[in-house]
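Exercise 4. Each item below gives a protein and its sequence. For each, produce the structure-token representation.

Item: ABC transporter substrate-binding protein (Streptomyces roseochromogenus subsp. oscitans DS 12.976).
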Amino acid sequence: MAAGAAACGPKDNDAKGSGGDSTPHKGGTLTVLNSQPQTDFDPARLYTSGGGNVPSLVFRTLTTRNRENGAAGSKVVPDLATDTGRPNKDATVWTYTLKKGLKYEDGTPITSADIKYGIERSFAPELSGGAPYLRDWLVGAADYQGPYKDKKGLSAIETPDARTIVFHLDKPEGEFPFLATQTQFTPVPKSKDNGTKYEEHPISSGPYKVVKNENDGEHVLLTRNPYWSAATDAERKAYPDTVDVRSGLDSSVINQRLSASQGADAAAVTTDTNLGPAELAKVSGDRELAARVGTGHFGYTNYLAFNPTVKPFDNPKVREAIAYAIDRSSVVNAAGGSALAEPATTFLPHQKSFGYTPYDPFPAGASGNPAKAKELLAQAGYKSGLTITLTHSNAKDFETSPEIATAVQDALKKAGITVKLQGLEDNDYRGTIHSVKTEPGFFLAHWGADWPSGGPFLAPIFDGRQIVKDGANFNTGLLNDKSVNDEIDAINKLTDLDAAAKRWGALDEKIGEKALVVPLFHPVYKRLYGSDVKNIVISDWTGVLDISQVAVK
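Answer:
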């Protein structure tokens, strides 16, 4: 899952930044203040959407996200390649041609063999962590162990010449151009690969190169790559001369520093820290601060999950009763209010690119319908109500945390359902809910998209062939419905992504009627940026400020 956010575009700010001369200029230092360090800074090990934010400054890929505000930013565009890929008739073979004049930070040319090698090294067990799709999609890749153990490489990737690369897939994949935005498609020169140490100084193909990486990403310093050419890169603006990424900071400290905008912090942004409810209330009352808030929506859903193998959740009437009983207004308030969360009745997020189709299989209004819930419980044999346990995380994330669990508990009480809360420390929580052997009957969960489409949203959660019995399982409802599986396959064959989106929306509605999940809300991201930061771009892909676009005074 990507940890970014996907956006509706700036709402609280103008797209050029705040105050004075809004024209972006080259020069200066952009400071990035983050809570989480940029660990594993190796393109093989990163699990990003659209190439990531900081990583995308160093790593170019075959395709990338369109760096535009709003819906336009949900499109795939060429990066190192001349186009987004040329499929054969059934989308099982994809061919790319590299642009001319591409160079690394040392001036050597970038070749198709480097991209093939970069992908192959991502299969090495010691470089694990990236997206798993290539292992599933490429012909003969399921058991490949990377070039350190198998020097023959992957025959599914051909490089007939220095600028051409061809991918052979096990099955039709119309969304392969989306996958080609992942950092595993970054070129890596074999002669410069030093295994697990590569992250200390990965060879840049983007506008910036790494000159310092301390404490595994806690402090990353980037300066210009002199061999990067804007003529080959229509997406990255690369205005600042230097990008200084400092992590491991407390979120409240980050927001205080961005709010004050003193010294270097005036030219600072964050790529991972949101404003909390209390901070947002303070910011909203200050016109100058409010003008420096970027608003975005990630392709992300927070939901209630059921394990239908555990009683009483094996009874669809019980699951439907809970869906009717939920008070989404109170859940939204627990998540920080309507400025930070939008009520959800669909599993797919609200953006068009995901295939969002409005529906509500169990319409209960904003505050729930306890009477209808009681009626369904009676039909299920629980006329006097029932007692159940809700598992949640103790992490203070306003998503799967005690605040949300308590709001659910209060709502269900009105329908005669007594909810006992079981809070787990975050690591235990994740391990428990993602194991088929330990998955509880009723718990809070969330899912984020690997790219802005219904495919990576619905397939991992509802495709029965993706149930993992001895590992991390995300098909929480253990659904294995042939008609659902077949429709996923049929949509995956489509290279017309608009047509595919409509089919994903219809499939979402079909699955929603099974009441295997209860969508609660989609998060809204509010992030401050410094007073000297210009050219704010927030797309429907990432939902957060794109640092490849910003300029500083």
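Check: Residues 300-525 form a domain with the Dipeptide-binding Protein; domain 3 fold (CATH 3.10.105.10).
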